[in-house]
Amino acid sequence: MTDSTPHQLLGLYDSPFVRRVAVTMKVYGIAFEHVSLSVFRHMDAMRPLNPLFKVPMLTLPSGEKLYESAYLLDYLDELAAERGLSPLTPRSGAERRQVQQLMALAIVATEKAVAIAYEHKRPAELHWADWTSRLRNQMRQAFTMLEERLDGNFLVGGRLTQADITTVAGIGFVRYILPHEWPAGAYPALERLADRLEASAAFTAVPLDE
Amino acid sequence: MTDSTPHQLLGLYDSPFVRRVAVTMKVYGIAFEHVSLSVFRHMDAMRPLNPLFKVPMLTLPSGEKLYESAYLLDYLDELAAERGLSPLTPRSGAERRQVQQLMALAIVATEKAVAIAYEHKRPAELHWADWTSRLRNQMRQAFTMLEERLDGNFLVGGRLTQADITTVAGIGFVRYILPHEWPAGAYPALERLADRLEASAAFTAVPLDE
Asked: Which of A67, B82, B144, B163 has its CA 20 to 30 A from that of B104?
């Protein structure tokens, strides 16, 4: 890796899966260029770069292109460990499983929120209220389970982990894109976590409208 | 772990994400009970076990419940390594990234196929043809990229990896649930891989209709 060919991250930060990768790179201090293209609004520009229309996509200094935010994070954790940093997801054992399982709840909440947003993209006459209701119930159940597990400043082990980043990226998405779906006051511990992390350098460097 | 409290896997095998976990446990020789409940058809029985309505869910001998098939596989890989088996996803480095990136393509293809199946679940008057068409294009692009990378009997390194299992679980889902969406003859190398693995002991032990 040289300074002249940094990592490139493709996708808008209004995608919580793009944003969690960007925040992780900021926490690790890994430089990258952000390519702000939408898979919906910039299809002609996206196609030659990313014919799969899948974001986030991370282009490595070698030119290799990586897909799936979970695997991007896995790669970044390995890179960070090589540089002597403590990985945001522990490498093995019980603590790894604990972080992964809180992330799993955050991923369920986030995926259901994204699915509600997709439902809103449909022509109005093609909306299906039963489906949105099912998604909403799952999203709220996942946030409730996270709220119950949050005791202190961080979700796991009293320090920042990927569980916190993924959770706060999901909450940020709901509040920004679907504010009427965020029941203010229902998740006080999660709100405190989100407000604190959104004010941190890594999150403010990755604004939702970029 | 004792024989009297094996692992329990919740979810139907017509979910490709449940099935890839079940096949992985068969390959590793990890005994488990299969709890065949649908998140749609068995909601009353599902609720007390799994209020998140998220499958697969793996209950460990300790009683701990794990969500997200990627994390279930990660746990199983660690368990297999403890038992002296070679993990289906390499633990680090270039080979790990290679397996993950072929899995990423399989996951995109599979998720888009699942989304097409969800579109079919909607009342007929709420179908959106433009959306199905977008999903179909992404699914086919991902299968095309897998077809181009498959050279020999396995996707990576001449041996069975999780890339093969996830790919074949995805193809099995499309052929079983959405047969009209599988363009027969378009992906000859993938078809040979799928036919060969579907005939193997691990896949035949996990039939799509269970």
From this structure: B82
